[in-house]
Design brief:
By secondary structure, this protein is mainly α. The protein has 13 helices and no strands. Helices cover 68% and strands 0% of the residues.
């Protein structure tokens, strides 16, 4: 991990600052919201016969939407005139406008979801990931959950303390976890980690889908702490913890009946990579962008290569021949570089 800090200052002015109380209350509300999604996803994954909208898990989810909505109203109360206007809402700081947009998506998605289930029934399999109401809900969750981090980013300062690092870590986890769940159909986390072992792999096959799963998972795992690293030096252990918790939770929710070695291997190798990288980084005579590009190039093939190696030890084969294995790891390396270049090139938004 690089310890460099970008010199661009937060775009919000002094009047846009948020109190610690506001950040932590929104963190609790967004945690309530996302935990409701985890419970609902786990219930559907383990109890396929669920055929009603009225479940305890939906109760946690939708009460979390209400808690997040009222929290945002509470935060806005001193930042809007007595009679809010369209112009005054648009004048709110970015750190608040994005969570508000997320709440709008949640309200639309939640309302449509109730109607959708009553008319067309409960979605199954791939239907879950394509249903329009679910798309709105996932997008809304991600935007609301990143609110505490955005609010803290508006505070001057180039380093995160212990409490700030914890807040950013938890906020980021709850922002990215719904996206990992939503991309389960194209993910190598909590899904198949190895190929089928067939000598000839058709283009349209579960093996081909798994190749895309490694690529999508590489992007989603790298992106959060690349973005955080643009604003602050990454707190010790934060990248490893984010990867490890996501790997374990995804396995627990969707693959807990199978062996735990894939999730535990990915979790362990993430800590090993961070430890080695923090030792090596001071020795690299490269600019910040160069170190990040090198990180994106090396870490994905190391992580996934370790998973495939442990898989071969556990099962006797990776399920892929040398062409597939080497090509897959090369693709993840190129994907890592592309993710770094894009994430570090996006400019700060003006107010």
């Amino acid at each position: 991990m690089t310890t460099s800090v970008e010199r661009a200052r937060p775009t919000e002015d002094a009047g846009a600052s948020f109190t610690a109380r506001e950040r932590w209350v929104l963190l609790v509300a967004s945690a309530w919201l996302v935990i409701g999604l985890q419970l609902d996803a786990y219930a559907h994954a383990t109890t396929p016969e669920l055929e009603t909208f009225w479940t305890p898990w939906h109760g946690v989810l939708y009460s979390g939407i209400a808690a997040s909505g009222f929290t945002l109203l509470w935060i806005m109360r001193s930042r809007l005139p007595g009679i809010p206007t369209y112009r005054s809402v648009l004048a709110l700081p970015n750190a608040l406008r994005l969570p508000l947009a997320g709440m709008a998506f949640l309200l639309v998605g939640g309302g449509v979801d109730t109607l959708w289930h009553n008319i067309w029934g409960i979605e199954r399999d791939m239907e879950i990931f394509v249903s329009p109401s679910h798309e709105f809900i996932i997008l809304g969750m991600a935007l609301v959950a990143m609110g505490p981090t955005l609010m803290l980013a508006a505070v001057p300062g180039e380093r995160l303390g212990v409490s700030g690092g914890f807040l950013v870590g938890v906020s980021t986890l709850f922002a990215v976890l719904p996206v990992h769940i939503y991309s389960l159909h194209a993910s190598s986390i909590g899904f198949r980690h190895l190929g089928s072992g067939n000598e000839e792999i058709p283009i349209f096959s579960p093996d081909a889908q798994l190749v895309h799963g490694y690529i999508v998972s590489t992007i989603l795992l790298l992106l959060p702490f690349i973005v955080i690293g643009r604003r602050w030096p990454l707190p010790l252990g934060l990248p490893s913890v984010l990867v490890a918790i996501i790997a374990v939770l995804m396995h627990l929710m969707f693959d807990s009946r199978d062996d735990w070695w894939p999730a535990l291997t990915l979790a362990a190798v993430s800590f090993a990579i961070e430890a080695v990288w923090r030792l090596v980084t001071p020795l690299l005579k490269l600019p910040a962008n160069g170190r990040w590009v090198l990180f994106g190039l090396l870490t994905p093939p190391v992580a996934w290569g370790t998973v495939l190696l442990v898989g071969k030890i556990q099962t006797g084969s990776t399920g892929f021949n040398i062409h597939m294995t080497s090509g897959l790891l090369t693709l993840t390396a190129l994907t890592g570089v592309a993710t770094v270049l894009v994430a570090r090139s996006v400019q700060h938004l003006p107010r």
